Amino acid sequence: MRVEIIPCLQDNYSYLIIDDNNNSACIVDPSEAKPIINFLENKNINLKYILNTHHHYDHTGGNKELKKKFESIVVGFKKDSDRIPGIDILLENNQIWKAENFLAKIIHIPGHTSGHICFHFFQEKLVFTGDTLFSLGCGKIFEGTYKEMFESLNKIKSLPEETKVYCGHEYTLNNSKFCISYEPGNHDLKKKIEKIKKKIKEGQPTMPTTIKEELDCNIFLRAKDLETFSKLRDLKDNF
Ligand code: ZN
Ligand code: FE
Predict the structure, then answer these.
(1) CATH number of 142's domain
(2) Which residue range forms the structural domain that includes residue 153?
């Protein structure tokens, strides 16, 4: 299993999870169809599944066109079945989703939206966190409470440290500015910022990050209680 990062729209990432043994693939959060079609064309890879972390347009905008072109099956959270375009398979919290060689645990992580989930490919140690966990940041709370978001991040925090994390947007450099202003003495964070700057200069995505790096550097994961977390979330909204 390998992951290809497909930049979409302004700063979104869609992720192709490719099983080379079967020439088949899943796409996580296709913001738009075109860049994904461009990547797949002439590669003889079948796009079998479309996985959506949440219903926002910048994560589902390519669903219908891709579904039509590749006859892909759209997979998303049951409670969002009325707002995920073209949904076929309805997932529940803590469900293990298995199809061909793809195997992921579904974790409900509300806060950004009420039906947000992440896909934890526990065998390969990959997690796709959509707009809930960003590298050095977290999503805005649109449909949930601070408590829900805090608890959702705690679920992600408990995954194995070496897990690779694939987030929905390239916000890392901007996020780093807020983190370092709050924790100016954090050495791991300073090292990570150097790495981020180098990648961006080379035109590379800053994904994937890891649970370990986020535990060391992401002040939203480092917040020790709900009160601290809520304060940080408010400060960030006005940063
Ligand atoms: Zn979103
Ligand atoms: Fe988004």
Answers:
(1) 3.60.15.10
(2) 2-237
